[in-house]
Amino acid sequence: DNPFYEINLRVVHFKISEDSYELIITNLDREEFPMEEIKKLYNMRWGIETSFRELKYTAAIVSFHGKKREFIEQEIYTSLLFYNYCERVIQNVVPKKVKSKKGYAYKINSTRAFHNLRTYLRIEKGGKEPPNIETIISKELEPVRPGRSDPRKIRKQQAQYFVYRFI
Predict the structure, then answer these.
(1) Distances, alpha carbon 50 to alpha carbons 44, 45, 149, in Å
(2) Which one of 8, 53, 72, 135 has the largest count of C-beta atoms within 10 Å of its C-beta?
């Protein structure tokens, strides 16, 4: 009957660099998972977290246009299908060779590639020769900068309606 129940959580706080700390809230047992074990597990999971972030932002699963669960699920599945399509195209594109003064390696900019593929799919061909999308994508590069970080910018997201189409 009561929708509330008691849950025990543990806050783990550890240093990750000279001037930054990580705060993790977990329900894992203190005896079975000491702080060093939590730190190791979190480090092992970090690649999965960054993959979800890339998927969420690149596939535009940050905000939805519908309110009903079925419509949101449809948007998620559509975005995932489009994400997989784009990744397959990107895998087959050979990046244009770039000489960097700072010695960076370059990779395909997946956000720009997704945008270009979305635009490409919307183009009405009308008998014309379609643009070579692989050439366009191969020119959209970004440097690989290991160890680079940017503070998180969090803001509340709401549904974005298509009402403007009826006005």
Answers:
(1) 11, 9, 12
(2) 72
141 to each of 25, 103, 111, 153, how far by Cα in Å? 37, 14, 10, 24
d(CA 74, CA 86): 18
Q: What is the pLDDT of residues 81-127, one digit of tens each?
A: 988 998 899 998 888 777 777 778 888 888 889 888 988 888 776 76
d(CA 74, CA 81): 11
Picking from 98, 101, 100, the residue whose alpha carbon sits closest to that of residue 138 is 98
**This prediction's pTM:** 0.60
- The closest of 112, 110, 102, 114 to 146, measured between CA atoms, is 102
- Strand pairing partners for 11? 25
